[in-house]
Amino acid sequence: MSNIRLIEFWRYQIQPLTALNAKSAAEPCEGALIRVAGGHGCIQPWPTLGDAPLQEQLRLLAIGEPTTLGARALHCCAVDSAARASAVSLFEGLVIPKSHVTLAAAEALTDADVLRFHSAGFDCVKLKVGPDSQRAAELVNAFASLWNFQSAANRIRLDFNATLDSAGVRQFAQLLDPVALELIEFVEDPCPYDVEQWRALQRETGLPFALDRDSDRFPADSAFPVRVWKPACAPPPVPSEGERIVVTSYMDHAVGQVFAAYEAAVFPGNVDTCGLITHPLFQRDAFFDQLRVQDARLVPPPGPGLGFGGMLSALPWKALT
Fold first, then answer.
1. Better-predicted residue by pLDDT, 135 or 25
2. DSSP helix/strand/coil, 1
C-alpha cells in the first residue's frame, strides 16, 4: 500500500486595508489552502519577514520536505480531518481566549473608535509601529490620550517588527508621555533579538519586551518576559514558569486564523490576552464574513472541524504535484 498522501491546494489572495507592519506594503497577500484526507490547512508566507515565497512553499510540500509553515499546515489538516470524520467541531467544550485589537499605526483613530472597542469588550490594543522612533512615540502618545479612560485595565501593546536599533529604542522611550508609559504592557520585537542588549534596554527604559519572530528558537529568558507564539509558524512552546504566552494568528486566511484560535484554546499552559482577531485588517471576503467577535473573543464558524464546510468543498482544488 502506498504511503503517499494526496495533497490538494487552492491559491488565494487577501487584501489588507493598509500596510500591516513596518516591513510590508498594503499589497495583496498570497497564500494557499491545502486539503489532505478531508482536512484543511493554510500556508501564507510573509517573504518580507523572511519566509520562502508561496511557490517555494508549495514545491517543498510537494516533494515531502515542507518548511515549518508547511508542516504546521499539515498538522492543521490532520486535526481538522479527524474532527470532520467524527462530525464534531474542534471547538466543542473549548473556550477561546480573549484578544486584543490589532491596529496599523497609520490608522487615524477617534473617540468614537475607542468607545466602539471598549463597548465590544476590548481592554487591550496592539499598535503596529515603524522605524521612525519619534513618529512612533507621537502616535503612541496620541493614542494613549484617547485610550486612557473609563477602565484602569486598559493596556497598549506595541510591535516594531525589529525595525529599531538600540539608540532608537532609547529615543522612543524618552519621548513617551507618562500616560503612555503607564499604559504600555509590552513592546514586541523592538530591535533584533540579542539577550544582553534586550536585558540592558529593559533596565534602561522600564519597558517589558516580547519576542515574536523566531521565538521558538530561544529558551525562556528574562530578556523577553513575553513569548509570542504563532501556531502557523511553530509547534506549541513548552510552558515555562514565569513566562507569559501570547498566541496570535499569522494575519492569514480565515482558516489559518481559526486554527490559531483552536491552538490557543487547547494550549496546556496559561495564555495571556491573545491576538486572534485579525480579519478586520483585510477587505471582507466570503470566509472572513463567517467570523464573529463577541466580548473580545473570536467566534468560529459552526460545523465540523474548523467549520466552513460547504465553502471549502466548493473550492476548485487541484492536486499538488
1. 135
2. coil
pLDDT given for residue 304 in this prediction: 98
Judged by phi (left if over 0) then psi (alpha if -120 to 50, else beta), residue 242 lies in left
Distances 278 to 119, 234, 251, 253 between C-alpha atoms, Å: 18, 19, 6, 9
Q: What is the pLDDT at residue 112? A: 87
Domain ranges of the chain: 8-88+309-319, 101-299
Q: Does domain 101-299 have CATH number 3.40.50.300?
A: no
Quickly count helices (H) and strands (E) in the chain. 9, 13
Residues in the chain: 321
Host H or E run for residue 85: helix 68-85
Helix (H, G, I), strand (E, B) or coil at 18: coil
CB 72 within 8 A of CB 49: no
* Distance from C-alpha of 204 to C-alpha of 4, rounded to nearest angstrom: 55
| CATH number corresponding to 8-88+309-319 | 3.30.390.10
pLDDT digits (tens, 9 = 90+) for 162-191: 999 999 999 999 999 999 999 999 999 999
Q: Where are the alpha helices (DSSP H) in 86-128?
A: 111-119
Beta bridge partners of 112: none
Query: Residue 315 is placed in which grid cell?
Result: 473550492
Cell of 222: 528574562
pTM to 2 decimal places: 0.94
Check if the beta carbon of residue 72 is closer than 8 Å to that of residue 94.
Answer: no
Whether the predicted pLDDT of 4 surpasses 60: no
Provide the residue type at 239 as one letter.
P
Quick one: CA dihedral 83, 54, 128, 220, positive or negative? positive
